[in-house]
């Protein structure tokens, strides 16, 4: 019998079954368990364990000492603690939008949580050009509930500063600082640029000093602005969906930063789905309908975020000076400006940097792929350089249409 108490090691599928039997009070004694490692992300090992007789199942997620994307990234397994704690907190702030956490183990750096196998990863669903009518409603609710209620607007300042300490996440923040804010905007050896796109990148991204300056400003705001507790990696690969429900997973990059970061990240990934559909759907009517759905979802996500933020602001804010005339507008405008900037950063870094998205890499025709990537880069530059001009959903969709 494996001893899971003496020190950390990376589990195999067989050991994950042993762990479930010995350390979790979830399955019946003697249950016939099977396990499959299903992790397809950049960092972790994800084991799905199923009782073959009852169908009961759970997920064990274990953090490794290095990123699966590259051994260059040494990452603290403490991210598993951060993920477990923030999932529990988000479950309180936005009930029903995150998986339930059953167990956290600081020795094995793993957690056991609800199995969402009845759900579909949103990026995968979008690759099949599926639509989800409630998505904007769900995303905007989750974002408002988690961002507003973890800010100085609502929390006592000492309580909020304690949370900042709890969710200090230097290793994973460093990955974001490098891969999002720094490396895509110069000729970094670690970048990975598609051949058909490279000449545009060299001319319009790496040789634009104005763009470089603006990304430097954004990086230092990211480093210093502890506005809200963020998910930190809020893309369509971190969202599980059915026709009726939406669940947010993988908040291991969680930290305190600019509130617009999560909103901008998900908007950029909706744009990636849009670009994929535009490139891959051959039937004109189907393509028009799908692109219209995504534009509507982008617009609704932003406009519903604004609407719900104002309602909850007036209901939940406790900070006296936040009640002064004009402060709400100032605060919300700042979030939307930051969201536009992050939309632009994400559009650029997923084309240029080491961590790509299947929305682009799955475009089979090389000419169409290059066109799609250059579309993202042009749009990304506009969002970064003109970020203060994006204050409504229609501002974002007009930029897409005019690009």
Automatic annotation (TrEMBL):
Highest taxon in the source lineage: Bacteria
Sequence ranges assigned to domain Aminoglycoside phosphotransferase in this UniProt record: 225-269
EC code: 2.7.1.100
Keyword match rRNA processing: no
Keywords for this protein: ATP-binding, Kinase, Nucleotide-binding, Transferase
Signal peptide: none
UniProt xrefs under SUPFAM superfamilies: Protein kinase-like (PK-like) (SSF56112)
A single GO molecular function term of this UniProt record: S-methyl-5-thioribose kinase activity
Top EC class, one word: transferase
Keyword Cell inner membrane: no
Protein family per UniProt: Belongs to the methylthioribose kinase family.
Quaternary structure (record): Homodimer.
UniProt name for this protein: S-methyl-5-thioribose kinase
């Amino acid at each position: 019998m494996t001893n899971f108490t003496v020190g950390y090691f990376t589990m195999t599928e067989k050991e994950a079954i042993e762990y479930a039997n010995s350390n979790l009070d979830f399955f019946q004694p003697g249950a016939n368990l099977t396990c499959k490692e299903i992790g397809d992300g950049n960092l972790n090992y994800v084991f799905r364990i199923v009782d073959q007789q009852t169908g009961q199942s759970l997920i064990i997620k274990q953090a490794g000492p290095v990123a699966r994307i590259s051994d260059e990234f040494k990452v603290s397994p403490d991210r598993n603690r951060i993920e477990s704690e923030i999932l529990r907190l988000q479950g309180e702030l936005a009930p029903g939008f995150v998986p339930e956490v059953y167990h956290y183990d600081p020795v094995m750096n793993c957690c056991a949580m609800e199995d969402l196998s009845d759900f579909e990863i949103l990026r995968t669903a979008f690759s099949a050009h599926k639509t989800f009518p409630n998505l904007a409603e769900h995303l905007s609710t989750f974002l408002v509930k988690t961002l507003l209620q973890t800010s100085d607007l609502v929390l006592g300042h000492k309580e909020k500063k304690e949370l900042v300490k709890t969710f200090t996440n230097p290793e994973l923040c460093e990955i974001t600082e490098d891969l999002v804010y720094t490396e895509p905007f110069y000729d970094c050896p670690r970048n990975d640029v598609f051949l058909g796109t490279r000449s545009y990148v060299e001319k319009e991204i790496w040789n634009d000093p104005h763009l470089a300056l603006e990304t430097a400003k954004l990086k230092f705001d990211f480093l210093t602005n502890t506005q809200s507790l963020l998910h930190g990696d809020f893309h369509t690969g971190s969202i599980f969906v059915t026709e009726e429900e939406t669940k947010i997973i993988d908040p291991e990059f969680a930290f305190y930063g600019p509130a617009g970061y999560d909103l901008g990240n998900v908007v950029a990934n909706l744009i990636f789905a849009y670009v994929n559909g535009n490139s891959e759907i051959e039937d004109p009517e189907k393509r028009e309908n799908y692109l219209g759905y995504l534009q509507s979802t982008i617009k609704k996500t932003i406009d519903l975020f604004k609407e719900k933020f104002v309602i909850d602001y007036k209901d939940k804010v406790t900070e006296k000076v936040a009640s002064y005339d004009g402060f709400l507008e100032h605060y919300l405008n700042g979030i939307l400006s930051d969201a536009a900037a992050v939309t632009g950063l994400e559009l650029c870094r997923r084309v240029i940097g080491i961590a790509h998205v299947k929305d682009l890499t799955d475009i089979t025709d090389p000419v169409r792929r290059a066109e799609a990537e250059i579309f993202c880069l042009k749009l990304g530059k506009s969002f970064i350089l003109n970020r203060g001009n994006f204050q409504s959903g229609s501002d974002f969709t007009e930029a897409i249409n005019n690009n």
